[in-house]
Every structure is written in C-alpha cells, then in structure tokens.
Design brief:
Length: 367
Amino acid sequence: MKPFPETPIIKIEELYGREGEVSQLRRLVLEKKRWVAIIGPRAVGKTSLARAFATQYSSATGKPAVYSNFAGIHNFTEFVERFGLDVMNLVHENKLKLRRVSLGIKFFEAVLEREKNIPIAPRNPAALFDEVMRALPEGSLLVWDEIQDMRRERNKLLAALWRLHNVLAEKRPIIIFTGSAMGLFKKLLNPEYDDYLYGRAPVRVDVEPWDVQTGVEFLKRGLLAAGNVDFSIDELREASIKLGGFPGYLSSYGRGRIDGLTHRRALKNAHEEAVKRAMSELRSFVRLRPQREYQRKVIALLNAMGEGVSRPSSLARLSGLTEVSVVNTLETLLEMGIVEKESKSKVVSIYRFKYGFYQEAALRIRA
Ligand SMILES: Nc1ncnc2c1ncn2[C@@H]1O[C@H](COP(=O)(O)OP(=O)(O)O)[C@@H](O)[C@H]1O
Ligand SMILES: [Mg+2]
C-alpha cells in the first residue's frame, strides 16, 4: 500500500488509529441498528472512517453500502438526484441488486443512459426518494457525506427521513451521516426536531484529531514504508504539533517528505493547506446565513477572534452582533470542534480556536 494517499481511506486495514471509533460504530450500527452522525472538522478523517466502516460492513454482512457525497448540494431535488444516481451507478457496476423496479428506478436509469448525464429535473423528488428507498435491499447501509451544505428545503429531507422511519420501519436502511455540525446537521441533531425522526435522531460520534504521539507514529510508519526519507523524531513531533494531529494535514506533510521536500518546506506547505481548508470551512459557515449584513458581522467576529479576542462582550462590540448572537455563533463553532471554551466565572466564558491554523484562517477571511 502506498503511504499517505490523497483520497479518503476505503479499506479498514488501511485506517490508522481509529479502533475505538470503529468499535463504537459497530456497536451502534450492527447491534443497536441506530443511525449515526459522524461529526468533526475538515481533514480529521470523517469520510475515511465512514467509508472504511461501510466497506467492512458490506463484506461482513453481504449487504450493500451506498456512499454519496452531498457537498455543494443546495436543495432536496438535487439531493434526490445525487442519491438516485449513486444507487443506479452501483446497480450498473453489479454491486447492488434492487428488490423491485419501479417508475422511480426507471427514471434514474433513463438519466444514467442519457449522453453526458444531463439531468432531467424530476417532477416529484419526494416520491422518487421513497421509491428508491423501497427498492433497496434490506440491511443496506447508506453513507451520506457533507450534508451540512443543503441550505434550502431542509424540512423536505427531514420529512423524507420521517417517512422512512414511519413507513419502512424496521426495513429502513441504516444511515451514517457525516459532516460538520452546522446548518442541516445542527437541525438533525437538535432534539427540537426529533419529531421528524420519530424519536430516533442519529447518535453522535465525534471524530477528534490524534494526540501528538499518535501523529508521530502515523508519520513514522508511513515514512519508513516509503523508505527514501531521512527524518528525525523531533521533526515528526514538530509536524504533529503544528498540524494539530489532523490525519489529512499529516498525510500531506508525509507526501511532501516522500517527494523530497525538506522538513521545513513540507511543514510549511501542509500548514498552508490547513489554513486554506480552514478558511473554506469558515466561509461555508458564514454563507449559511442568508443576509449579507449578518454575514459581514460574523466575518468581523471571526477576524476579531483571529486577533486573539476571546470575550463575548468584546466580540459583540467589535462585530456589531448582539452578545446573544455572539454566544450562539461561538457555541456552533464549539459544536463543530474548532473552538474551545473556558469558564472564567459563573457567568463569563471565553472562547478560543483550538488549532493555530483556524486562528490564522479567521484572521485572513474577508467579506
Ligand atoms: N484513520 C486514518 N488513517 C490513515 N489516513 C487517514 C485516516 N483518516 C484520514 N486519513 C487521510 O487524511 C485525509 C483526509 O481524511 P478525510 O477522511 O477525507 O477527512 P474528512 O472527511 O474529515 O475531511 C484522507 O485523504 C486520508 O488519506
Ligand atoms: Mg470528508
């Protein structure tokens, strides 16, 4: 196996240091038949964990697993199209046998067969969604990645999930949601919306970056396997600390070293990638707010946090947001796993970014 691949891990044997998370998933999905939400910041390894688990699930049970990536999907129609085509692609590759062929299935078949995959807008996406679900074999596992992006028609998706619980009941597929704890995801996890999910909201599994030592061992193992790199443990320790123990950025550092870069250069490149990816995550966080004016204030709040301001009262003054909105925003960033909170007294808490590259990203982000 080539160390530090650029794409997510798909085989369980290649998934490093996630034994705890995998057995937690096994317990929830196989024993309790629960839906799961895998939450964490970018590059922490959510997709890898979900996909490696899904592959193992498939080979252990003989049931199909369908992976869908919903990054950039805006509404329910696009959601159903993406999902339907992912299912049909597996059917075409002979990796999935449907239980029945319905009009909905024929619809996606037709879309797939059209040249260049030009989408035909479905007239009733909710009915199509239900038909595809009924056609899936019992025990299917669905991985729904990056669902937080869906800004419009969230209630249509929640209603569709409610129908799954209500109509298909025990025959419903198992779903692993992954993404960042913002937008639709917040809603999905919020007990207020539990009605939609028939009292069966997904169980949250947080994916944390590795500690310094695990990061060092991960790098050491990969670099030794590559065999062409002269490295010291101090260098790997510095990389593990600076890159916050994020598998994605550690891998990028490792690839740099294998490609012949010096420690300094490889670390600088990986850190720069981390800042850029953190900026794009913070930008999607800002864009979830509909009004421009509000977006500008959230950016001002992030800029101030980038400068090191940590008190909600000061952040409110500097951003023009009310202190209540400041605290709500900070609490979402806390949920997303990128800031930490420290209680200063019974009434005052301060918030700081957990990782240097998020602080740098917050400083650089502009309206
Ligand atoms: N447990 C792991 N073992 C080895 N490599 C990993 C692991 N988790 C993530 N990676 C590497 O890090 C990169 C980013 O991981 P990914 O799963 O895409 O993160 P996320 O979905 O959280 O953004 C992947 O390309 C993968 O190669
Ligand atoms: Mg991912």
